[in-house]
Specification:
Layout (H helix, E strand, L loop, with lengths): L8 E8 L9 E8 L8 E8 L2 E2 L6 E2 L9 E9 L8 E2 L3 E2 L6 E7 L9 E2 L1 E6 L7 E8 L2 E4 L4 E2 H4 L5 E9 L8 E2 L3 E2 L9 E5 L10 E7 L10 E8 L2 E3 L11 E2 L9 E9 L8 E6 L5 E4 L6 E2 L6 E9 L3 E10 L5 E9 L4 E7 L3 E2 L3 E6 L5 E3 L2 E9 L6 E14 L14 E8 L1 E5 L1
Antiparallel strand pairs: 1-2, 2-5, 3-4, 3-6, 6-7, 6-8, 9-11, 10-14, 12-13, 12-15, 15-16, 15-17, 18-19, 19-22, 20-21, 20-23, 23-24, 25-37, 26-35, 27-34, 27-35, 28-32, 28-33, 28-37, 29-30, 29-31, 29-34, 35-36
């Protein structure tokens, strides 16, 4: 009797992992016996997805061959070299959702400032191709500081503190592992520049000190104490002959000024570590002011009626710049408007400058012209005045026939060309030009 070979028997087939995701490699493992005592077998593998055969034939099925939601089963045939078993199938497994993963989390700044807003750039992936969203946990000096996608330093952190964020990815079904950014240390903030202005804006040579006034103090986001550095130039060259009004070196004394000098100041603020941008201003020094006309108060007065333009002749012997028109009155009496006209045939001609309406007060009044300043070439001019009520300019006791007058409404603007005027015999009155 001849004993024949017995075919091996595959008693069970396991498929692991039993709860796979699309990122897993599946492994098909048979349990085989043989009545002949054979322990070495050759296996043939077959795979199905959703009940349909696929081309895979190894004991493993890699992630590239299956997707989330697939139902996978493997079958095994064992051979001892002479006979083969029947095909035995595993239980099926369903491919589950894969958790997303983060590879990098990078803060928007490695050296943020106190008032910066930090965010994070995230590189992530999801094997299933699902959309990935994130949850955030911000930490300042190791303590929880926020859970939004950004962290505002205005309220959350200050100079010298350490900041990082921990980000957790999710695809809406499963959350991946949290990944933290590198830690950033909050750096010093550079102070903001101050605002500065020269005072006065039109200094007079040998009369006015020039003060570089800090009109808007410098600020510092960190709240650091600030100090100012003030430097000057005079006509483009460094100037050091300063004094102090409020801050060290903020003033040029009047003794250092001459007509036509240009002084410029430069102011920076420092917190001891960083210096602000510079704030600058400059000013040109004017020559000494002087008057043309009758600026010394006379001892008596006369009256001029309302709505009457009166004009006094005046000679400018050398070119000058007009800034104001002056008068002296004995009593307050309504409002006045003053003007300067060129000379045309011994009468007022073309309007050169005028003042705004001004309430008359007793004593000297020097009223700025509306244009700020006007150049007056050497020559003959007329100072004109119009009143709302009878006025009382101070006068000399002697009279002159050189004045002119015309009826003209106070409510009307000064005309570009003076109205026709008549000669007037009046006492010499206090009207004058303030020029440089």
């Amino acid at each position: 009797m001849t004993i024949t070979n017995s075919a091996p028997v595959v008693s069970a087939v396991s498929l692991t992992p039993t709860s796979p995701t699309s990122a897993d490699t599946l492994t098909c493992t048979p349990t085989t016996t043989d009545a002949d005592g054979t322990t070495s077998f050759t296996y043939t593998y077959a795979w199905t997805i959703g009940g349909s055969a696929i081309s895979a034939s190894s004991s493993t099925l890699g992630p590239s061959l299956h997707s989330k939601g697939d139902v996978v089963r493997c079958s095994v045939v064992a051979s001892d070299g002479s006979a083969s078993s029947s095909s035995t199938a595993s239980s099926s497994v369903t491919i589950g959702n894969s958790a997303p993963s983060i590879s990098t989390v990078t803060l928007s700044s490695s050296s943020p400032k106190t008032n910066d807003t930090l965010s994070a750039a995230i590189t992530s992936s999801d094997t299933d191709g699902d959309t990935v969203s994130y949850t955030y946990a911000w930490f300042v000096n190791g303590s929880a500081a926020g859970t939004s996608s950004t962290l505002n330093g205005t309220t959350a952190f200050s100079k010298g503190q350490s900041v990082y964020v921990r980000v957790t990815p999710t695809d809406g079904t499963t959350s991946g592992s949290a990944v933290s950014s590198s830690t950033a240390t909050v750096a010093n903030s550079t102070p903001n520049a101050p605002g500065v202005e020269m005072d006065p804006e039109a200094p007079e040579a040998g009369v006015d000190d020039i003060w570089c006034a800090v009109t808007t103090p410098a600020s510092d986001d960190d709240g650091d104490t600030l100090s100012y550095t003030i430097t000057w130039t005079k006509n483009g060259s460094s100037f050091t002959g300063t004094t102090t009004t409020v801050y060290t070196n903020d003033t040029v004394p009047y003794t250092a000024t001459s007509a036509s000098d240009t002084f410029a100041c430069r102011v920076t603020a420092s917190d001891g570590s960083a210096t602000s941008a510079a704030a600058t201003d400059s000013v040109s020094v004017l020559g000494a002011s002087y008057t043309i006309g009758n600026a010394t108060a006379f001892t008596t007065y006369q009256s001029f009626g309302a709505n009457t333009l009166v004009a006094m002749p005046v000679t400018v012997s050398s070119s000058a710049t007009l800034y104001s028109i002056g008068t002296i009155h004995s009593f307050p009496s309504g409002d006045m408007k003053l003007a300067v006209y060129t000379n045309s045939g011994s009468a007022p001609g073309t309007l050169v400058a005028q003042t705004a309406a001004t309430t008359i007060s007793a004593g000297t009044q020097e009223v700025p012209i509306t244009a700020g300043s006007v150049s007056l070439p050497a020559g003959s001019y007329w100072i004109a005045a119009i009143y709302t009520a009878t006025s009382y300019p101070t006068t000399h006791t002697s009279t002159t026939t050189g004045w002119r007058y015309a009826t003209y409404s106070y409510s009307s603007a000064y005309p570009t060309t003076a109205p026709s005027t008549l000669s007037a015999t009046v006492k010499i009155a206090n009207y004058y030009l303030v020029v440089r």
